[in-house]
Amino acid sequence: MKIAVIGAGAMGSLFGAYLAKAGEAVTLVDIWQEHVAAIRSQGLLLSEEAGDEVVRLDVVLGTGGLVAVDLVILFVKAAATRVAAVDAAALLRPGGRVLTLQNGLGNAEVIAEIVGAERVLAGTTAQGATLLGPGRVRHGGRGETHIGRLSGEVDGLCAQVAAMLSNAGLPTVVEPDVRSLIWGKLVINTGINALTALLRLRNGQLAELAETRQLLALAVEEAVQVAGAAGVALPYENPLGKVLAVAAATGQNQSSMLQDVLRGSPTEIAVINGAIVREGERLGVATPVNRTLTLLVQALEKNLLPS
Ligand code: NAD
Prior knowledge:
This protein is an alpha/beta fold. It folds into 2 domains: about 1-175, Rossmann fold (3-Layer(aba) Sandwich); about 185-305, N-(1-d-carboxylethyl)-l-norvaline Dehydrogenase, domain 2. About 50% of the residues lie in helices and about 20% in strands. It has helices at about 10-20, 35-40, 80-90, 105-115, 155-165, 180-200, 205-210, 210-230, 240-250, 255-265, 275-285, 290-305; strands at about 1-5, 25-30, 45-50, 50-55, 60, 70-75, 90-100, 120-125, 130-135, 135-140, 145-150, 170-175. The strands form 2 sheets. The chain has an 8-stranded mixed β-sheet with strand order 5-2-1-6-7-8-11-12, sandwiched between helices. Strands 4-3-10-9 form a 4-stranded mixed β-sheet. The longest helix is centred in the middle third of the chain and has 22 residues, at about 180-200. The chain is globular and about 50 Å long. The N and C termini lie far apart (about 45 Å). Nicotinamide-adenine-dinucleotide binds near residues 6, 11, 128 and 268.
């Protein structure tokens, strides 16, 4: 299978490196010149608990020259999804697929608008990665990846992609109700990301302070109401308990949104708490806490922009 990873940051580099090590024909695609140049000249430095390893793999700046790709794995941050999906459409062969494992709600739908819903695979991953610098990535948490189609129909190609990722050391399961898993992760991120970013707390601290625990509970309760109104059955029984457990289990971590704020990069607030607000509006569920969190993070992003 000929594969392109569009968005070769932390996660794209990780998935690309594992696929390349397994002998798959994978090319990384990114617009970050320094990163592309570093991988091209020195290979990708993959930092694992067991030690560092240099992985040689193809990388291109922009989509230049790539054609007839069977699978695009799209790993840009949400703000770039539309642009990346247009690139994906141009380099896919007819019938080729796009897989998104991005966080938040709405990425798969944006990609579907551009390439057609029947060509989109979506899902979630419990793998984690952090960029250490150009050409350097650290593999963080490990866990299962779940993929499926928004329509719920699972086909042979979906199973083939799952088998390929599993063979490459990224254990992947085909999931008929992928929407439930995407919402499940969304509710967790809704409780953790904005609050950690605004208050500059590590995940574990959210559950320890009475005030932040209460704010987290309010944000999660709204998200649960919206999920219910959208007809989504969450993949766990006790949402607040689940979010607090994840915050505790990842206690020392800085959430991706906090990392973005500290770097002065745009966050994914629009597809996390912002998505709860939008879906709430559509479905007639009030979401004042998530609206406030969204506006606060958006204001914070503006302050950080260079003048
Ligand atoms: P990242 O910022 O490290 O990487 C994104 C990359 O996309 C960057 O290298 C950037 O240069 C590139 N890019 C931007 N626009 C592009 C374009 N038009 N064409 C090609 N490349 C482009 O982000 P990440 O942490 O790898 O996260 C990617 C997605 O995966 C996000 O939705 C995130 O929420 C999700 N995710 C991340 C983790 C994690 O541990 N980092 C875990 C699960 C899910």
